[in-house]
Amino acid sequence: MTSTERHSKELPLDPSRRPCPSSRLSRMLLFSIVGIAFGLPILVFTALVYVRAEQRNLERKRQIQQLGLMYHAFASERGKSPSSLDELQAYKPKGLLALSYPDDDNARIAIEIVKDGRLIIIWDAMFAEGGNESDLYVLGYEAHVPTDGGIVLLGGGVVAYQSATAFKAMPKIPTISDLGN
Which of 1, 23, 44, 63 sits at 20 to 30 Å (Cα–Cα) from 30? Predict the structure, then answer.
């Protein structure tokens, strides 16, 4: 018998031999560690993506809220709502309104999101006497809200997330041109 034949012969298995429970536990522990080693980075990455998305949502909400403040400051001082973005952009508040008016950087960003079509604003709005009543109406909304849901600026200045279905059920704020109809 050659050495190759000796090695190629299979050794008979002893039925009385069973795997050691500690080796089974070791394998389970090894698989758990490997699972954690690969799963934990995926979990952390997913959490970071979610946190960054929430930060972007908060930033967009803040920018839309700034535009709402500009719109309301204009309406408070002039007794009527702005009729266009150009009119709102040219407005510089006086007195106490100037203290709460957005700074130039926030105002610039808010105006840009309207200019590039990401935010739809209803011009010449007619506000109700109380802000709470005006919050029943839409004053502005992200362009994708009618189909996908998103951030909505309500007439009283509240900024909230609305689903596409809820948005479709909300009335838009009345405008001066609605008086003629």
Answer: 44
- Residue 24 falls inside a structural domain: no
pTM of the model: 0.68
Domain count, the chain: 1
- Give the residues across from 150 on adjacent strands: 162
26 part of a folded domain: no
- In Å, what is the CA distance from 178 to each residue of 79, 83, 175? 18, 13, 5
> What tens digit of pLDDT does each residue of 87-139 get?
988 887 776 555 556 566 767 788 888 999 999 999 999 887 765 788 889 99
| Residue type for position 146 | P
* Residue 46, in any domain of the structure: yes
Tell me the two tokens of residue 6. Answer: 């000796």
Proportion of the chain in helix, strand, coil states, percent, rounded to 5: 55, 10, 30
Q: Tell me the three state secondary structure of residue 126.
A: coil
Tokens 């990401």 belong to 118
> How remote is the C-alpha of 87 from its chain's centroid?
29
Instruction: For 16-73, write each residue's pLDDT tens digit.
Output: 555 555 677 777 787 778 777 777 777 777 777 777 877 887 888 888 888 888 898 8
Residues whose CB falls within 8 Å of the CB of residue 42, separated by 6 or more in sequence, listed in order = none
